[in-house]
Amino acid sequence: MRPTLNFLTDKLIERIISEARELICKLGVEIHNENAISILGDHGAKVDRDKQRVFFTDDIIDRSLETAPSSVKLYDVNGELAADLSGHNVNYTPGSAAISILDNGESRKPLTGDYVDFAKLMCGMDNIALQSTAMIASDVHELISDSYRLYLSLLYCDKPVVTGTFTIEAFEIMKDLQIAVRGSREELAAKPLTMFSCCPTSPLKWSDVTSQNLIDCAKYLIPVEYIAMPLSGFMAPVTLVGTLIQHTAETLSGLVISQLANPGAPVVWGGSPAIFDIRYETTPMGAVGTMMIDCAYNEIGKHLGLPTQAYIGLSDAKLLDAQAGLETSMGATLAALSGINSISGPGMLDFESCFSLEKLVLDNEICGMTYRMIEGIEPKEDFPSIGRFEEMLRDGHLLIADHTRKYLKEEIRFPGPSIDRANRSRWQEEGSRTLYERAHDEVRQIITSWGGYVLSDDVRFELTKLMETEARHHGMDRLPEIA
Questions:
Q1: Helix, strand or coil for residue 138?
Q2: Looking at the whole model, is its pTM more than 0.90?
């Protein structure tokens, strides 16, 4: 039996959805993109162009929910299925767009070499199905930073990529990079390689950039995850239910734009809301209230028949310490029990702003533990049991019993070298190494054993040509050299 977790009753979910629908129909949504406004107006929404406000209707909401697919599948660079976002399937992906990297306890700006190390490391993260454009390399022009990190991800790791762009213009090259890998627009639509994060602005607003991203992704059938970010007690009601109403309204409005732009466009009910800690004026991702909101809006998304995503399973700690483990493991556990389809967070620290390769390795272990947990407990030739106990009483143990050898690796999960399970004397004999030291050694071992380029020479050449052209367009003579 798969263990599951719920925070909301069906009755409460239905009331939250009803309230959210009323918000976007009666109060409307502020939209700063003429294409999106026109699409909505053409389908019957009331438009106040002076205030750039659109008032939705129940009809267009219902039609959009009917056309939104119930699953999203993502494929690796070789065209093999890598992640099925549907039902209660659980998939992990690292946090995204960090502006710093933790290097031996110090935070600094990431460079191209750091990103390449991350992509190579991701190839060895067996419990993390998707990669992300995890950090922003500071040694390229900021206007190519979005496409550049996608370029590096495709070059050095074969897993699908959760990505996004902060500009309208960057979408074009990011789409072309994907088509270069797939071979055609049709193949990319058939086997999506990326999922774009698109973020409304709380309360109830879509910017020019994010609105256009929704439309462009829908056109090419590139999956979108909506990342609404209401903040309880600041830019959202202080109550968790009030925040859920706002999150539902903002996400629902994005879904309508996508579906009216191209019915059937693949979408994911996601987000990154948080409670607001008024004491420090921060948005803690490791707070239990934040995790409860994430798990609850996942229930709302599933109630609507949609795949789900959440930023959960990460930490606000500044170092790889006990707080990092506490917050990450609690979030990852709640997310897995809730059946969130895409769980974004491994590797991330400091309010989603700092990435740690060592933490990624440890979080991979946490993800593996949750996978074992949601497999649940099932009998495996355990009845009748008397024969097993007769054997143990006769031999004094069951270490080499047929039953043990058959089910050992299936029943008991053994972690990698970063996790210490030796007794104290052996730990001391082996150098009394700290958690960070073990994780750091594992990072270096995986990176140095990286198996080589995952794409053909022709595809790599085409990707590099596209990226170099984009770099020159923004005043860079050459891309950074990669060791």
A1: coil
A2: yes
